[in-house]
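Holo prediction — cytidine-5'-diphosphate.
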Amino acid sequence: MGGKSPVPLLVDGKRVDGRLPEDHRPVTMRVGVLPNASGSALVGYGNTVVLAAVYGPREAMPRHIALPDTGVLRVRYHMAPFSTDERKSPAPTRREIEISKVVRQALEPVIFLEQFPKSSIDVFLEVLQADGSTRVTSITAASLALADSGIPMRDLVVGVSIGKIGDTVVVDLNKLEDNYGDGDMPIAVVYRRSWITLMQADGSWTVDEVKKAIGLAFRAAEPIYKMERDTLKGRYSEQAIVS
Ligand code: CDP
């Protein structure tokens, strides 16, 4: 965030990719893409593409992480070396460690972890293409993969990024907007319950802008939430036809 963008980010109310401020990029979703995982999903927000794989619940390893009366959720977010314009070293960075933690915290409230004492549920997130908003795309992908695995959940989670270009609040930042915009606010929404399970912010926001950001995040989350449900239903009907 910050610095001077090589191109203007907002011209006559339109963004670099032609979107209006409140427009989300096209969203794509598939579940069950990795047969050997307990659950999996591939999610695209525009050119940002994230693969999520869930393993477990399984005996927590190493043993000392196991808790006697609840399960443990572990999340690893990682960017593939080929996902960015400049090759990214495959070694985990501080940024990846931080994103792994916040994605875990965005998901924990919806999983019935108490049903799986001494066990772990492991979520691996691999960013295959990065074009902004990878952490919120990861949240949507992880939520779908968890549901695909059949782990009991209170509801699905949707990640949406909200940003600022000058004084304009915009939805779903692409990489240019993420890198050169004036504010970045990733939000995780549990749509049906009206919960927010993650909210971070860079840049300075007025109270009115924060209220607007939350409203826009819920508006953008609604069709994505419906798509998650339809994608999971489609998966199950597909299984029913096969069996
Ligand atoms: O991806 P997200 O917006 O959640 O996190 P960020 O730290 O705000 O990163 C913004 C964007 O910068 C990412 O989505 C990538 O497109 C890009 N990026 C990159 O190209 N190389 C990195 N090592 C880190 C980020």
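READOUT: Helices lie at 94-107, 134-148, 175-180, 207-242.
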